[in-house]
Structures are given as C-alpha cells and as structure tokens.
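step: validate -> pass
step: tokenize input -> pass
step: predict -> running
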Amino acid sequence: MSKGIFEFARQGMSGEGDEAISLPSWFATMLLVGLFVAGLYGLQQYELQSKHKRHAHKLSQRNKTVRYKHKPRFEFYSILPKRIVHPKLHPSKTSTTAKKPAKPSRYILQVASFSKFSDADRLKAQLTLRGFDVKIESTKIKGAVWYRVRTGSYANFAQAQKAKQQFATHHYRTLVRHIH
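step: predict -> pass
step: emit ->
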C-alpha cells in the first residue's frame, strides 16, 4: 500500500500495477508544481522591488528638503540678459569745439565671434560657469550682425597676455584687441 512517489511514478510510466498514472497526467502535474514554484519566486521578487521603491521614495523625500535649502549659485536667465552690451553703430553727429582729452589706450580679449546670438550666449554661459566675466557686443560688418564674446579692459598688453593664459588653461584661444 505505501509506495514511494518515485516507485509510483515509475509504475505509472511503465504501465505496471493497478494504480498506473499516464505520462500526460504526470507531465501536467509536474508542470503545475513548477508553475507554482515560479509564481512564488515572482511574488518574492515583486515584494523586494516594491520594498526598494518605498525606501528610495523615502530617501528622495528626505533629499528634497535638503536639496532646496540653498539658493542656486547661478541664475542665468535673470543675470545674463542684463549683461548684453549694444554699442552705438554710428557716432553721434554733434560737434564740439573743444577737443576731448586723449584716452589712454586699453586692451580687451575677444574669445569668439558668432553670427547667431544663441551661439554667443551659450559660450557666455559656459565661461561664466568657469568664473570668467564676459560680455556680448554686437556689431554690423558688411550688412551682417556679428556677436562678439569679449572680456576685460586691461591697462597694458602684459595684463591682457596674463588673462589670455587663463583662458588657454581652459582650452580657449583668445585674440588680444587694442582699443584707442
């Protein structure tokens, strides 16, 4: 009467004995057992994932309070538009009888010149992030508007060269321009 499962299965497959079980029935039983075990494993994985999600959500809630305590360091959309310089394209026609005193000559660095304002603004933002004080000047050359990214007003050529070296350390090639 008390036959082991393996002996029972062997008899079922061979067709021996009075309690024989057919091969398709045996296969279906094993398939159901396998699906049951796979379902238990999947349920365990689902519980682990939901536990990790809850933990991550708690951490993100904690970090939100810390993340927004300090004011952002750069406010580009409020700072950068104020720094655009539009020089006069034509000198004023007013005449003065007295001669103006001669200005001392100065030097500036031109980092780049672009035909699109958005390109100049992008470079200005990159340089501002690196700590450089730059401005955008627009000028008209042969009917086209160019946007020059410039920096500084240096008293002599040596100061301009020193500033040029600082830009070179960040892989920017600059042009020293002399202004009268």
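step: describe -> The longest strand covers residues 144-154.
step: cleanup -> pass
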